[in-house]
Design goal:
Elements: H1 2-24, H2 40-56, H3 63-109
Helix pairs in contact: 1-2, 1-3, 2-3
Length: 110
């Protein structure tokens, strides 16, 4: 009975960190504010926390728990990389458009 309760609590801990990370990546609405909030630094902390849990519990989890945690981490890391790449793409697009605007203004002055 206690083992079942511990497994349930462990799974709940994983899901909480997963939801926090997904909200911080802007993938889920924050239920408190009912808004999409995006903070990739905060998402990284949640992912790193799950990585730490995986390292600290290695060899001490059931097959199911280990596979579930690994799958959650894989999903979160892929989403995190996608979000970081979005920022890089939008930053380079903004840089390109501001360079074009600057070039156009300089051409207009001539």
């Amino acid at each position: 009975m206690e083992t079942d309760n511990n497994q349930l609590l462990f799974m709940q801990l994983i899901m909480q960190n997963q939801q926090i990370a997904m909200m911080a990546m802007g993938k889920l609405k924050n239920p408190v504010t009912n808004k999409i909030d995006r903070n990739l630094d905060y998402a990284k902390v949640s992912i790193d926390t799950l990585d730490m849990i995986a390292a600290k519990t290695k060899g001490n989890l059931s097959d199911y728990e280990e596979k579930y945690l690994a799958e959650v981490l894989k999903e979160l890391k892929l989403n995190y990389v996608e979000e970081v790449n979005k920022d890089k793409t939008s930053d380079s697009a903004q840089s390109s458009s501001s360079l074009e605007e600057k070039s156009e203004k300089e051409s207009d002055k001539k």
